[in-house]
Amino acid sequence: MKTAITELFGIEHPIIQGGMHYVGFAELAAAVSNAGGLGLITGLTQKTPELLAKEIARCRDMTDKPFGVNLTFLPSFTAPPYPEYIAAIKEGGVKAVETAGRSPEEYMPALKAAGIKVIHKCTSVRHSLKAEKIGCDAVSVDGFECGGHPGEDDIPNMILLPRAADELRIPFVASGGMADARSLVAALSMGAAGMNMGTRFVATKEAPVHDNVKQALVKATELDTVLVMRALRNTERVLKNKGVKELIEIEREKGASLKIEDILDQVAGVYPKVMLEGDMDAGAWSCGMVVGLINDIPTVKELIDRIMEGAERIIRQRLTGFLDGVSTGSAPARAIA
Ligand SMILES: Cc1cc2nc3c(=O)[nH]c(=O)nc-3n(C[C@H](O)[C@H](O)[C@H](O)COP(=O)(O)O)c2cc1C
User: What is the pLDDT of residues 60-95, one digit of tens each?
Assistant: First the structure.
């Protein structure tokens, strides 16, 4: 399949693996790129720019296909040395960066001077337009369903994607709630040139996380995520667990006076405990509503091949069938997932 996104990043399939803290290591990024998508190493999971340089080199050993790096600008107590992270990306020869969180405006000159294509993750049309204005090459439009930080507008992708299509001139991918062939075809129908998946890629053989995490995703339903940190205007969609229950109780007690210090035990240092040690009750970690569509743990290649083959079948058989007046019933839509 050829779209503006496959052209922009020089990839075979219009599927991106979003940056994921303590998940986006070289193993997953390389697996996604080898399967024809765009894999991303999560920059800040590497504690220093030197470690990121090593992770990029490790990924380069595992794939000769294009891969990228995610750079997240979220509120933190001490800002990471972003210019040095960008230098590591540039020196590692990486040509794609996914930015997220705050606007990447300050860093655009350095990224562009290095010939890097920038895709900025946005949860609103206005932020997407700002990204276009500051010279981003593409946008990842992240709906309210998404795992991680959906912003504060709460607009789901059925509305957000066509709204983005109406206003943007640069290409965009649909992010949030994407899991299978049906997601890809729906995203393309609404104007996107591909899709970005987070949660779905965690439940794959190559994702270098504890098996408890993958089993928890297979077990969970679409009812098992919850929004936290709303009072801090840093809303995050996470998987419910014991730590998250405590967090919600604290949020209820403190109301609008909640401070990040009140919930440090439930939000700080949680990722290594969950992803590396498999402690599923440790606290808040990002997970999308799409978890309700995850029922297995395939290899990345099996997942991507299944999506691309299924998308072709939906387009050629189900959709064209409607136009040709051939009733296909509902079977293909179910079977293709
Ligand atoms: C475990 C996990 C960790 C994540 N960490 C980050 C991160 O560090 N930076 C970032 O920009 N997005 C992060 N995300 C968001 C994903 O990149 C992606 O935008 C999101 O998962 C899309 O929604 P989906 O989960 O419904 O596919 C994370 C998501 C998950 C599930």
Answer: 999 999 999 999 997 776 889 999 999 999 999 999
**Cα 19 to middle of ligand 1, angstroms:** 6
The pLDDT tens digits for 298-327 are 999 999 999 999 999 999 999 999 999 986
Residue 246 CB-half CA count within 13 A: 12
Q: What are the phi and psi torsion angles at 190 (to 5°)?
A: -90, 5
pTM for this model (two decimals): 0.97
* Phi-psi map region of 178: left, alpha, beta (phi>0 left; psi -120 to 50 alpha): beta
Beta carbon of 175 within 6 Å of any ligand 1 atom:
yes
**23 within 8 A of 202, measured Cβ to Cβ:** yes
CA distance 29 to 99: 16
**Amino acid in position 92:** G
At 204, the amino acid letter reads T
Test site for ligand 1: of 15, 17, 20, 118, most ligand atoms within 8 A of the Cβ: 20
φ, ψ of residue 226 in degrees (nearest 5):
-150, 155
Lowest mean pLDDT among 30-39, 216-225, 317-326: 317-326
CA distance 149 to 318: 34
Task: With CA atoms as reference, report the closest residue to 208 among 75, 77, 39.
Answer: 39
What 3 state SS string does 261-283 have? HHHHHHHCCHHHHHHHCCCCCCC
Q: Indicate the pairing of strand 117-122 with strand 138-142.
A: parallel
